[in-house]
Amino acid sequence: MSTSPKKSQVHHPSLPKTPTGIIGLDEITDGGLPKGRPTLICGEAGCGKTLMSLEFLIRGATEFNEPGVFMAFEEKASELTMNVASLDFDLDKLQAQKKIRLDYVHIDRSEIEETGEYNLEGLFIRLGYAIDHIKAKRVVLDTLENLFSGLNNQTILRAELRRLFQWLKEKGVTAIITGEKGEGPALTRQGLEEYVSDCVILLDHRVINQISTRRLRVIKYRGSIHGTNEYPFLIDEEGISVLPITSLKLEKEVSSGRISSGIPAMDKMLGGHGFFKGSSILVSGTAGTGKTSIAAYFANETCKRGDKCIYFAFEESPKQIIRNMHSIDVDLQRHINKGLLQFHASRPTLHGLEMHLVVMYKVIKKFKPDVVVLDPITNLITVGSVSEVKAMLIRLIDFLQEEQITVMFTALTLNNIVNEQTDEGVSSLVDAWILVRDIEFNGERNRGMYIMKSRGMKHSNQVREFIITDKGLDLVEVYLGPEGVLTGSAREAQKLHEQTGEVLRDFAVSSKDRELTRKRKVLEAKISNLQMEFESAEEELNKMYQQEELIKQAALNSRLEITSRRRGEYRDEKGKIND
Amino acid sequence: MTKEKEVKEYELRLYIAGKTAKSVMALANLKKYCEEHLKGQYKIEVIDLLIQPQLAEGDQIFAIPTLVRKVPEPIRKIIGDLSNEEKVLVGLNIRPA
To answer: pLDDT tens-digit profile of A247-267?
Structure first.
């Protein structure tokens, strides 16, 4: 415990770290706070310094078996206990178990008089006693700067603070010191950053357009790599969660598995199998084109397969969506009852963009869905600018792809010029982009759908007519002909027209056929007539030949008879000559 | 008179951490002032926090040396080596400010 940092550095090639246990913070700091050294957490009032440091202690005590001392200069122990009770942390119990020790240092200027030289040995002794008492490995000094408001002698204070940090290092405890943000560029009012040089974390609570976002930034971390960005963080009933989901690398696992969109005709357009698993899909279109219906169909199909789905609704309430989807024969309630589907509805203005992201991140981590639906992302624009929304969605997509979760966004396009759409910024991020648009023609409005892009698969280039009936969604081939692209009733009319034409043509053809048959029959009849004539003539001829032959024969016979009679020969009946 | 004397009974506690120069000086100063101004009506208790560190919390001690006036109420604290007599007397409410 009391090994000096120098010693431990010899044993470990890299800086030893103390995990904070706060969701996300350990990832940003690559393992936690520097072990055995003080860390400064600074920020304005109400930015979450005290809570973060307290959670550091509580997580240490409960998860890493490292007891901690909390020395409060601002709030009384009982107040602190109350404050964190709302976060499900039972400080009283932890104190009873000797895992945490709260020590409230009360400095009241009105009852203190300073005369002559003094030092802060009393504080050291108290802290030392508390540390030894529970064998603490972690220490928090909450708003040490309150000393400055209570005491006049700055020279002594500064010297003593320097000594205090040195002493903490010697004690080998991992300490957090919190400090109020100072004026201008100063991190703290009293320049505490001068003394704590190992690790400095800045918390920030910004209100832009009446919406507040908490952010965290690691300003300095000596001897360690760390994320340098501003990370949003969230305080909820489970404490603090920081969102480190800007993965800088694009080295995600990819799946070549496919999942169906729920609309067979659409799957067919997407190479016959639907979307890639873990891909991101954007469905954009003007108002009332059925984006939510497509999303609900997708969610429904997912749950039918037995996969889990989270539906983030930013426009309608879950009940409203469920009711509306009944009209296209989709029963979402049944999936909710089975625990396969979760709805999370919130107005975009509920909190800032980053906070939405953190909330989604948490919900997704907890529920572990296979599919996530965001309906619609365009509403988020009300809370942030296009570039902010884009940045947020990049992070969300990054995170989801890492988790192999398929995501479908819907986006409202405000005009029909593709290049000016608000979702255009997002379109380069997504893997598949389906566009649903109105085709206004012939006094009616129809829905046309096409696939703008679908990375890594063969996809149809056709515009289909997208129809919504009480039996569900379907895609129909639009009529593409000499008259142009026809949809809706125009398409039906054209079809009918074509059908009539066909019937007429059929009729014409068949009458011609009959005519031909008749002609053939007549011809055949003529042929057979002639043949018969010919036959009778032939027969006549034959008959004559035969007669002639017979006559010839008879003549011959009679001549022979005569001759033989002359010779006195007898001829028997058979004509044989018998001598 | 007796009653007033009881009220004027001073209970003083001096917190020190080892016999450092400052502690020794503070105790010497304190004894001197008490003898001069509160003869017979004071009680001084010296607490060495190196020996009894658990007592630091109770009186909210953070600086050394600290003189605490327990009685009469309200509690007053004077930190430092008590080298400024004027301030100590005012601080202890012995002499009105």
So the answer is: 555 566 677 888 888 888 888
